[in-house]
Structures are given as C-alpha cells and as structure tokens.
Amino acid sequence: MAQARTVFFFRGGTHVRYEIDPVTGAETVNHDIYPRALAEAWTAMPTSFTHGIDAALTWPDGYVYFFKGSSYLNYDIQNSAVRPGYRRVWTGPKDPPPDSFRRSSWSAPTPMPCTGSTTRTTSPRRP
C-alpha cells in the first residue's frame, strides 16, 4: 500500500493538514484538531512567521522551507527547530537559492492542460 501524502493549507494564522491516499485520491482531515494555529503546531516558528505564510515546501534535505513576502526560513521537522542562520531575505532572481536547491536536479513542473467545466482556478486572498 502506498504511503499517504500530506498537504498543508495555510490561511492567516491557521493551517489544515490533509492526508491524501495516492491510489484513490481520498482525503482525510482530523476535524477535532484542524484548523489549528501555526504557533501551536510549529512551536519553534518565529512570531513573524506564525501568520500569513505565502507558501511552504518540503525539500529532500529533510527541511521545510516557509516563504512569507520576501523572506524565507528553513524548518527542521525532525528537531522542531528553525535551522540556525536560515531566516533570510530573498532579493530576487540573482539571489542564489539555498545550497540544497542548487545541488538538486529540480526543475519547474510542467503545466497540465485544463479541460472540461469542472476545473476552477482561484487566486489566493491577500489581506
């Protein structure tokens, strides 16, 4: 049996965790726990990052990169800590990405065509 995939959705100072079965696409959420405050779940997160996360991704180096505005940080899930020196400001395309990004063979995903009337695209809300 394939391992469930975990997806987090962020809004304001809260998040929801979905477990998605990669075979059936079935999703589950523990409604007794979620939505949950970021500060409660990610206890080492700096106060400035406990509200308004723009994006987050898990990288193969075992860390989660959280992005907010022009800043990002590197969160060590194993030790529940922000990696020392990793609250950084991204200054634009000339700013080098983190070392693990440069060493990987990562490339941007290929967009999938949208067909049919059941597909809906929405833009994220901005405060």
Q: Would you list the SSEs in sequence order as H and E?
A: EEEEHEEEEH
Biggest sheet statistics: 4 strands, antiparallel
Number of strands: 8
Number of helices: 2
Q: Name the structural class.
A: mainly beta
CATH architecture: 4 Propeller
The helix content, as a percent range, equals under 10%
What is the terminal-to-terminal distance?
A: 41 Å
Assess the beta-strand content as a share of residues.
Answer: 25-35%
- What's the CATH first level? Mainly Beta
CATH superfamily: Hemopexin-like domain
- Tally of discrete structural domains: 1
CATH topology-level name: Hemopexin
What is the rounded Rg? 16 Å
How much is the average pLDDT? 75
Uncertain regions spanning at least 5 consecutive residues: 103-127
Shape: globular
Set out the fold topology:
Blueprint: E1 5-11, E2 14-20, E3 27-28, E4 36-37, H1 38-41, E5 55-58, E6 63-68, E7 71-76, E8 81-89, H2 99-103
Antiparallel strand pairs: 1-2, 2-3, 2-4, 5-6, 6-7, 7-8
